[in-house]
Amino acid sequence: MKVLVIGSGGREHALIRKIGQSERVEEVFVIRGNEAMAREATVVDIAENDQEKIVNFAKDNQIDIVVVGPEQPLIDGLSDRLTAAGIKTFGPNARAAQMEGSKDFAKVLMAKYDIPTANYETIDNKEDALAYVKAQGTPIVIKYDGLAAGKGVVVAMDETMANEAINDFYAEEGAKVVFEEYLEGEEFSLMVFVNDDFCIPFDTIAQDHKRAYDGDAGPNTGGMGAYCPVNHISEKIIERTNNEIVYPVVEAMHKEGLNYFGILYVGAIVTADGPKVIEFNARFGDPEAQVLLRRLDTDFIELIEAVDQKQPLDLVWQNKTICGVVLASNGYPGNYDKGHVVEGYDYQKDYIVSALKQVDGQWVTNGGRVMIALGEGQDLQEARVNSYKLVEHIKSKGLFYRNDIGNKGL
Questions:
Q1: Residue 132: which residues within 8 A CB-CB, separation 6 or more?
Q2: Among 300, 363, 340, 313, which Cα is nearest to 12's?
């Protein structure tokens, strides 16, 4: 079997590594990939938004299945284009991908089908938004309606923060913004493999760390680290999440005719009233994919085929804890410089790379989140220690990281 992965970040590096472990897979290709993936897949220099070239490549190379990693190609309809060309594609069509692409779309669906989430209001102009915040008060959660690479959410603890977010989000012509009630509780991430009215939820959850700095301080990012399993969130909560959120939303998407085929990421929070939805993504979380796929023992291709055929499958997990710490460029998620030399990386399996490239024989930074160090252990304490040893092995003046990844689990 030949598999093509779309994407170039850490999530896709984790995917090609996991897919390549399958005895069913003869060759893995990645578009556009990054140079750190070159020993584990054939890196193909085609832009992720060049749908015609991607389709032609898949045809010419007799690709059996395409796995779409990032959200933007899904929103842009790459799955629709590949499917129309007769190429099996794991990743939702453009309409279904609106579960991530539009916060308002997801909120309307949840309201219609009574899926537990925060109360909200969608507002399409700055004046009404300012008035709404003044009337509702703070804290309040403010979300840009479209894609924003994990950075389109502001948890405004006071009116000044809220007004700054409003000024930023409405700077774009025709912007829509979703205002949500602030929910107190512990957050977690649950991945669900979906085929229309059928699904296989992961029975292991991960916990992401969204804020840039220690103690959950600073701005939201795409994610600064993650770990799994999350033992202090009970099996009962996971069961409630499946029964009250996962199965109802899969049924709701089916009733709406979305024909969803791919990963549905459920970002949830444990409140006093039980689990509620914070957000949906139409693909694996990043960095959650890196820790979950490292721990998953089940063959990834076998899992996709089970979902495709709507056959139940018991997932098998390694009996260990995985902790991943992201190393990011100084200044991320704001402005940052590229090109800082990174020493200590030489394709080791304990690092997954998002944004490194080689210049004159040296690895240099090439993006915001640069790499993740994956430590494993018999428990979270051991996994944390091992992940931070790997972090310390990497030397660069251009990187920073959080020192408290996994602390909530301890």
A1: 121, 123, 179
A2: 300
Task: Report how far residue 305's alpha carbon sits from residue 302's, in angstroms, rounded to the nearest whole number.
Answer: 5
**Integer CA distances (angstroms), 302 to 1, 55, 174, 247, in order:** 12, 24, 44, 22
Cis peptide preceding 283, ω within 30 of 0? no
Residue burial 242-260, b: 16+ Cβ < 10 Å; e: rest = bebbbebbbebbbebebeb
In the chain, % of residues over pLDDT 70: 99
Query: Residue 308, Cβ neighbours under 10 Å: how many?
Result: 15
Mean pLDDT of all residues in 308-325: 98
83: phi then psi, degrees, rounded to nearest 5: -65, -40
Q: Which tens digit of pLDDT belongs to each residue from 214-225?
A: 999 998 899 999
| Type of residue at 195 | N
- What lies within 8 Å, CB to CB, of 115 at 6+ separation is 109, 244, 245, 248, 249, 252, 277
Distance CA 374, CA 383 (A): 8
DSSP, residue by residue, 181-192: E---SEEEEEEE
